[in-house]
Amino acid sequence: MGAICSSCCGGSKGSENPESYAKFGSTNTSQTSVPPTERDLQAQQSAAQAAEQRQQKFDTSATGRAARTAVNNVKKEREAERVDRNDRAKDWLN
């Protein structure tokens, strides 16, 4: 089956060179990295601001409040470590 897959991906049937697989998708470490430009920094800053606005909008929405309540309920349940907690996986075992 491996020979079929490699033939589809440009390899020849029977060429099982492990080094060719190691080179796939790897980057050359000798490449020099380019320092970010002012435009890159501005784009990062505007993306961070947009993400913050989306998070604030989510936190104030009904969905965000429900999610926060659900997370808090799970935390309380785990802290209590009750034996009678709502554990649906155990229902399937019986």
Automatic annotation (TrEMBL):
This is Uncharacterized protein. It comes from the Eukaryota. Residues 1-94 are annotated as: Disordered. Residues 42-53 have a biased composition (Low complexity). Residues 25-35 have a biased composition (Polar residues). Residues 74-94 have a biased composition (Basic and acidic residues).
